[in-house]
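In response to reviewer comment 3 from the previous cycle, which asked for concrete evidence that the modeling workflow produces usable outputs, we include below a single protein chain processed end to end. The sequence was submitted unchanged, and the resulting C-alpha cells are shown without manual editing.
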Amino acid sequence: MPQWTKEQEEAIYQSGSNILVAAAAGSGKTAVLVERIIQKLLNKETPVDIDQLLVVTFTNAAAQEMRNRIGEALEEALAADPGSNHLKKQISLLQHASISTLHSFCMELVRKYAYRLDIDPSFRIADEVEADMIRQDVLEQLFEEWYGLEEDAEQEAFFQVVDRFSNDRNDLEIEGLILTLYEFSIQHPNPDLWLEQLAETYAVEETTDESTLTWLTILKKEVARQLEVMEMQITQALELTKEADGPYHYAEALDSDKEMIQQAKGAIALSWQEARAVFTNGKFKALSRKKVECSEDKKDQVKAFRDDLKKGGIRLPLIGLVEIYLSTLLI
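The workflow returned the following C-alpha cells.
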C-alpha cells in the first residue's frame, strides 16, 4: 500500500466539489488519479461503475497505461475480496470504459450522435497535409474577396496591412502571419474574445506614451538582447583581426559596427524614438579591400561573422513591426 502524503490523500478522497491537482512531473499524479478512481469504485456507500466515469489523457500511451493500472488495482481488490460481484462487474466493464485521449472521446461522441448533428457518421479527421491545403484555399478565397471589394476605408486598411507585411511579388508573408495568429488564437478557450482583446492592446496612436505599453517594454528587451548578441559577434571578429596573422585591415569597419551597435543599445534604454533614429540611419561600413598578408581562414571567419550580422541587420525585424504598431491604430 503506497504511503500517500496529506495533499495526495486530499486529492484521492475529496468529494462533493471540483478539484484541481497541479504537480511536477514524476510526483505521482497518475498514481493518485488511479487511486481516486479505485476508491470511487470500492466505495460501499455510493459505489460507481467504471463505465460511468470519463477519464481523459493527452496521449494514447497514457490512456492505455491508465487502463492497465486500473485493471491491476481491480484484480488486487478482487483477490482480497473474491466474492465481490461488484468488482467482477468492474473488470468486465473496464474494456468498455471511457478511458482515452480527449480527442478520441470527442470523436466517439460526435460519431455516436452524428444523426443529431446532420453529418455523415463515417467522417474522419483530416491529416496535416489536407488541413494545410484547406487553410490555404480559405486564405486565397479571403484575399480574393478583399481585393475585389469596392474601395472604402476597410479595403484601404487591408491594403496597408498587406503592403507592410508582404513584398511586391506575393502575399506569402502576410498569409503566414495570419496562419500563425490563427494557430495561436485557437489555443485560447475563446479565440474571438482573445483576438478582440489583442486588438485593443495594440490599439495605439502617435501620441501614446510608450511607457504605458507593456508589450513594447517586452519587445525592447528582446531587441536589446539581439543587440547584445550582435556586439558579441563583432567582438569575436575584432579579436581575430588582432592576432598576428589576422585580417587587421578589417578592424576599422568592425570598430564602426561596434560603435553603431553600442549607440543602438544606449538609445533603446532611453526611448523608442531615440532608438528609431539609430535603426533607421545605421549602416554597416564596407570592409577594406586592401590586399594584405594574412591568414585566409581568419579572413573568411571575419567575413562570415560580418555576413551573419548583416543578415540580421541593424534594422531588425522587430523594429519594423513595432513601427507599425506605433504609427497605426489597429482596429
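The longest helix spans residues 214-241. We consider this sufficient to address the reviewer's concern, and the full set will be provided in the supplementary archive.
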